[in-house]
Amino acid sequence: MYDNTDPRARLAAATAKPTNGPFDAASLGHYDREPPQQVEPLARTWLTRGQNFLVACSETQPGAVLARTAQPDEYMALLPDAATVVEVTTPAGTERIAGHSLVVLPPGDSSLRMVKGGMLWRILTTASADLAASCGNAAAYATPHRHVAPAVSWPAPPGGFKVRAYSLDVPASPDRFGRIFRCTTLMVNCLYGWPGKRDPRKMSPHHHDDFEQGSLALEGAFTHHLRWPWTTDMTKWRADEHHECGSPSVCVIPPPAIHTTQAVGAGMNTLVDVFCPPRADFSATSGWVLNAGDYPAP
């Protein structure tokens, strides 16, 4: 259910599939008030997972290096601050990438060296077992969540696996929802910042049948509202949840919860949404995926 000014109103209406509980709760990482899971001399990293993806948010100083060895699949690095500069190294060489960008890194060995420090968000699949085990909410996924479909990778890019950097300096358009990028494993929507509080008369309650949504708060404050279906078995009902989150933070929204997020900060409020695998409906909407030419749909 979307306001008629929301580009998602043009998507095919989702029809809830019959489903039974028990249902899973939202999972949260409050990085503004919780200790990091990893502490290094030049970086502090918070880790939160969903069933198929995980988020590593690092507060870095110049010279910090975040490396992956024998990485099993592609992953992404988000550099929201334009002042940040990173050197990306793979067996193919080293390249310098400016901030306010999204970087796709190939499988295998890679490293990110922070030339100028700042916030670095890495988004990976839970095939990165070492990071998945270190997540602050790892216990919530000791048993797989029954309503989340398994992740299946999308086709390999025709140009082969390599470092691909995409600037976030993309003008907004009323015909497009945010700034959407995908790779073989993930889809990220870098939403435009919302100045001030969201109009409570223009919310967007909707649900997903079989995939989670990770909502990353880069700046500002938000309330994530969630409501679960009622089933014939009342013992499986869940009470509504309203999670107040500052920034940085992550909220992993489970299916099939009806959800909507309300910006409540007085200044700029900025979210990034994460999906694993990429969403078919967003991919099928012409012009929405900005790097569709690099990554074919199945």
TrEMBL record:
SUPFAM superfamilies in the cross-refs: RmlC-like cupins
Positions of the UniProt region annotated as Disordered: 1-22
Superkingdom of this protein's organism: Bacteria
Protein name per Swiss-Prot or TrEMBL: Uncharacterized protein
Species this chain originates from: Siccirubricoccus deserti
